[in-house]
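Hypothesis: this fold can be encoded by more than one sequence.
Test: take the structure tokens below, design a sequence, compare later.
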């Protein structure tokens, strides 16, 4: 069943007040001269649907918000999008069936809650489809198919009306344009798109794996790396050599172990005891040195306290004999002033009643006693230190004597075997080094094998996927032939009815789905006299007519055309034919499609057959904002 898509109402909220337009008819014509805002309204509709509409200065300067009532699939929504640069990425959505205000949706596809997902799912289409190139050489999964791509089959902008069809001249958009065509006419399904994307991505992985595998092999060849078989043989030789050497070393160890007799063992025990005693003596010497240092520090402190007391006593005695006659600070005479008896002439403080000599002598005696005790302790510690040093010398001499004795008893019996033991140990180490080298070589070959297996697995997956795609395309081939045939017949009939100059035969290409005029691509046929415009109308109306007949395709039977007569100039017959075609299509499918046409001059013969919304310089599209006049505005698209 063809998907229903209709625009029911639009509201432009400007700084001067709202402007509203209803679209209740199957065919509505927005009529008026160039510059009154027809294209502005159509671009605002694209903007309201989340696109990047071309906004006129009056919109960016005077319009605050744009609202759009749409019916899509079985649902109805109110979409409101702000023109504020800070808010324009959010679209406010209201479900008109329930009146529920839904969470805001993001304009950018791929966001967690995007407007694209809402519109695509309402059309009954997945929002994560990708259009992979079908050249067989591409390794990219393809660009995401969004509602903006679907909209290129619904809106013919004025900038493209006499130039191109669905931006087919942009080669980078070719995979998406073809994918959307196949999707809308059920010539492919989301599963097939997904498989194509997977196949392209797998193709990239296969190429990457093959390249990596080849580089590793080339590196091994260039570095003269041994083959796997040679490395395996050398590794086995190294392992055998290590086993033989380890057996010889075990035998030598058994031969060496019984050499020690009882006297040698006794000497070893004495040596161990002497070494422990030497270590204890050294530890005692360090400990005594630390105690001497601490005691010396304390002695210096006591001496300092005694010196301090002596200086204080001496200073008191010297100052007590001085009779000040002049103030040492301000040099004023002191003899002339009266001084109470028993007070200091200088500070007038009472003289000390008692002497502190006795107390000072007691403290000094205590400190001297401490100092004497410390001297005794230091003498004792120094004597202990000398004893410890002598013990260290004795133990060092004993250790040297015992080591010499042990060496003399064991040299002749152990040294030759130790040399043999050392030689065997070196042989074992060399074998292990060789093993590590050859194991590393084998690991490189294992890596090559892993890469080969990974490449083969990826290639098998890719081949299986390609076979599945080919099988599915074979199943769809008959339908593609049928649909393209029906489109070609309908397109040829419409072109003949329009009497496009010079066209004797028209058809649809069976792989790129674009018009052919007299067997040539439409762009090569002619670009003058409105030929492309007439071809556009014939092409899009033929697509809608076939979609309406087939009923089982998800084609949204909606068409928005901007200024078809603008490129026709004086071709009145062709212009009349275009409107005749639009009127005929609308009447034959009442209630099943919607077409909105913006044009500057309308054929009088068909005005009764469509709803007309007329604009002028006095009543522009955004009528709440005063129009600056014909010469005061620059059209969005130059004629």
């Amino acid at each position: 069943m063809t998907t229903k898509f209709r625009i029911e109402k639009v509201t432009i909220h400007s700084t001067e007040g709202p402007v509203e337009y209803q679209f209740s008819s199957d065919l509505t014509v927005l009529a008026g001269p160039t510059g009154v805002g027809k294209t502005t309204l159509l671009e605002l509709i694209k903007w309201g649907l989340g696109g990047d509409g071309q906004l006129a200065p009056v919109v960016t300067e005077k319009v605050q918000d744009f609202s759009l009532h749409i019916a899509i699939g079985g649902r109805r929504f109110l979409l409101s999008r702000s023109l504020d640069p800070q808010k324009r990425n959010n679209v406010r959505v209201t479900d008109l069936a329930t009146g529920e205000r839904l969470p805001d949706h993001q304009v950018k596809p791929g966001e967690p809650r995007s407007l694209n997902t809402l519109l695509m799912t309402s059309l009954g289409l997945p929002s994560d489809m990708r259009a992979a190139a079908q050249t067989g050489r591409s390794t990219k999964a393809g660009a995401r198919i969004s509602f903006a791509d679907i909209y290129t089959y619904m809106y013919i902008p004025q900038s493209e009306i006499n130039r191109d069809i669905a931006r087919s001249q942009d080669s980078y958009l070719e995979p998406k344009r073809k994918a959307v065509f196949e999707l809308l006419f059920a010539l492919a399904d989301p599963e097939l798109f997904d498989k194509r994307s997977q196949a392209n991505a797998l193709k990239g992985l296969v190429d990457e794996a093959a390249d990596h595998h080849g580089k590793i092999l080339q590196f091994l060849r260039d570095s003269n790396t041994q083959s796997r078989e040679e490395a395996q043989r050398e590794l086995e030789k190294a392992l055998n050599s290590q086993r033989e050497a380890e057996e010889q070393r075990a035998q030598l160890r058994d031969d060496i172990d019984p050499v020690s007799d009882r006297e040698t063992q006794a000497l070893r025990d004495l040596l161990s005891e002497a070494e422990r005693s030497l270590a204890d003596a050294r530890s005692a010497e360090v400990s005594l040195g630390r105690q001497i240092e601490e005691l010396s520090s304390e002695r210096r402190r006591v001496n300092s306290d005694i010196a301090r007391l002596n200086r204080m006593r001496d200073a008191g005695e010297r100052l007590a004999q001085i009779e000040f006659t002049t103030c040492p600070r301000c040099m004023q005479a002191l003899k002339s002033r009266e001084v109470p008896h028993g007070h200091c002439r200088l500070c007038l403080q009472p003289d000390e009643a008692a002497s502190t000599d006795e107390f000072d002598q007691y403290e000094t005696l205590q400190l001297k006693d401490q100092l004497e005790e410390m001297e005794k302790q230091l003498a004792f510690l120094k004597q202990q230190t000398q004893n410890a040093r002598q013990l260290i010398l004795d133990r060092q001499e004993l250790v040297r004597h015992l080591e010499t004795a042990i060496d003399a008893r064991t040299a002749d019996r152990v040294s030759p075997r130790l040399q043999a033991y050392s030689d065997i140990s070196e042989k074992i180490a060399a074998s292990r080094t060789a093993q590590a080298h050859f194991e590393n070589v084998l690991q490189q070959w294992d890596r090559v094998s892993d890469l080969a297996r990974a490449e083969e697995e990826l290639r098998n997956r890719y081949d299986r996927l390609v076979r599945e795609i080919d099988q599915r395309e074979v199943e769809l081939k008959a339908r593609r032939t049928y649909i393209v045939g029906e489109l070609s017949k309908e397109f040829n009939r419409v072109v003949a009815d329009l009497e496009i100059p010079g066209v004797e035969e028209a058809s649809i290409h069976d792989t790129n789905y674009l018009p052919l005029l007299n067997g040539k691509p439409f762009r090569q046929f002619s670009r003058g006299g409105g030929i492309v415009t007439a071809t556009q109308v014939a092409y899009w109306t033929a697509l809608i007519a076939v979609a309406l007949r087939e009923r089982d395709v998800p084609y949204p039977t909606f068409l928005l055309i901007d200024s078809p007569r603008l490129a026709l100039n004086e071709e009145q017959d062709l212009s009349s034919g275009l409107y005749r075609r639009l009127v005929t299509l609308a009447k034959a499918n009442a209630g099943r499609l919607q077409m909105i046409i913006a044009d500057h001059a309308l054929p009088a013969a068909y005005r009764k057959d469509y709803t007309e919304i007329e604009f002028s310089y006095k009543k522009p599209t955004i009528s709440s904002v005063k129009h600056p006049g014909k010469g005061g505005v620059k059209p969005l698209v130059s004629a």
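The chain has a mean pLDDT of 84. The two ends are 39 Å apart (CA to CA).
Hypothesis status: open.
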